[in-house]
Amino acid sequence: MGIGYEGDATGEICFNTSLTGYQEIISDPSYAGQIINFTFPHIGNVGTNNEDIESEKIWTRGVIFNSEITDPSNYRSLQSLDQWLKKNKIVGITGLDTRSLTNFIRDKGAPKGTISNKKSGNFNINKLIKISNKWPGLSGMDLAKIVTTSKTYTWKGVKTWKKGKGYEKNKNKKIRIVAIDYGIKKNILRYFSNYDCDVKVVSCKKTAEDILKLKPQGIFLSNGPGDPAATGTYAIKTVQSLIKSNIPIFGICLGHQILALSLNAKTKKMKLGHRGANHPVKNLVNNKVEITSQNHGFEVIENSLSKNIQITHKSLFDGSIEGIKLKRKPIFSVQYHPEANPGPQDSKYLFSDFIKEVKKYAKKKRH
After folding, report:
1. What is the rounded end-to-end Cα distance, in angstroms, of the chain?
2. What is the CA radius of gyration of the chain?
3. Which among 66, 108, 181, 273 is most buried, taking Cβ atoms within 10 Å?
4. What distance lies between CA 104 and its chain's CA centroid?
5. Which CATH architecture has domain 2-134?
């Protein structure tokens, strides 16, 4: 059965194992070019609202659910998920055995596919198969330049959501952060507001010179969609120049991969990818295990890392790299999402670690 917007949607079929946060997942720009297959069967229970979105524009190609969407039951709900999908022109289908589809992806890898929603019920299957086969796939595709902001803006200073209070405003903008937008999530910006940051968000096409003119005390490399190596014509050169400036740098997800590429490492497409809010990661520095939220289909190749890079985190699912740190500079990144939303809060200390480095740098500059 079709839900949401009437039409066709073509992209890479991936699966997400999260039990909550479907609105945040669908609105994450990192899903550009992808159709999300949700393993949790009951999607839509709490409806949708105007607060739990990660981007003003929805870049996800389509969604696949096991069960039909029921009427929402939540005090924050303003609109049903079906209405919200229609409004944002997201094609959806229900009635599939989504866990069986997940097992197929685990065995065969993430396939290209097309889903179709038509009230008439008349589908040209051969045409849909041709559309799927013609789509080039995510390897070699630069989507960061498509989802990035078109102009520099200052984040409005809203903090992370709290029950009973909602989104409070940060009135103490003491620390200057420049965030390079490869497909940034709003909850990352909210976390920076928690730490009294004044955040300027810039396009991923900005040069290092443009960024340094803003006099940042810290630089953030955001998450985003697509093949990290495809950003090489502009992003790597910029980040390499920023590394030389000695300003603290923190990267998440695609930002982590771009940092690694800027340090002459290599990346590759994963067979399955990691997408969900229940992924165990081992912190190799303190030997603790963190349960993390993840959304990525590419990874850094371990044997391509130079000796001046320390591996700080590894996945306990498949041993892939989940975090790196430059040994002699305040520069580090993680593959997963410490800001979660949805997901656990085990890794939010990374924001605190980054802000400590930023404050150290700011203090040095004053003296």
Report:
1. 65
2. 20
3. 181
4. 24
5. 3-Layer(bba) Sandwich (3.50)
Question: Is position 337 annotated as part of the catalytic site?
Answer: yes
Q: Identify whether the C-beta of residue 165 lies closer than 8 Å to the C-beta of residue 322.
A: no
Give the span between the Cα atoms of 227 and 254, in whole angstroms: 8
For the cut 90, the answer to whether the pLDDT of residue 138 exceeds it is: yes
**151 is written with which tokens?**
């102009």
pLDDT higher than 70, residue 367: no
279 assigned to active site: no
- Strand 218-221 versus strand 175-181 pairing type: parallel
> 196 in the Ramachandran plot: left (φ > 0), alpha (ψ -120 to 50) or beta?
left
The pLDDT of residue 364? 84
Q: In the numeric block, which tokens belong to residue 218? A: 């810290």
Candidates 243, 280, 282; CA nearest to 260 is 243
Q: Where in the chain is the domain with CATH 3.50.30.20?
A: 2-134
Tokens of 106: 């685990």
| pTM for the whole structure | 0.97
Residue in 256, 274, 296, 337 annotated catalytic: 337
The Cα–Cα gap between 167 and 158 comes to 6
Catalytic residue among 12, 299, 322, 339: 339
Q: Provide mean pLDDT across the span 182-194.
A: 98
CA distance 324 to 94: 40
The total of other beta-carbon atoms located within 10 Å of residue 64's CB is 22
> How would you classify the pairing of strands 62-64 and 34-38?
parallel
| Residues contacting residue 327 through CB under 8 Å, at least 6 positions apart | 308, 309, 310
Residues of the chain with CATH 3.40.50.880: 144-366
Determine the topology of domain 144-366 in CATH.
Rossmann fold (3.40.50)
Catalytic residue among 253, 279, 313, 322: 253
To the query of whether residue 24 is one of the catalytic residues in this protein, the response is no
DSSP string spanning 137-163?
A: -STT---HHHHS-SS-EE---B---BT
Q: Which residues pair with 293 in a beta bridge?
A: 337
Tokens of 16: 């997400």
- 232 confidence band (pLDDT: 50, 70, 90): confident
According to DSSP, the β-strands at 153-154 and 197-203 are antiparallel
- 3-state DSSP assignment of residue 220: strand
Tell me which DSSP letter residue 236 carries: I
pLDDT, the chain, mean: 96
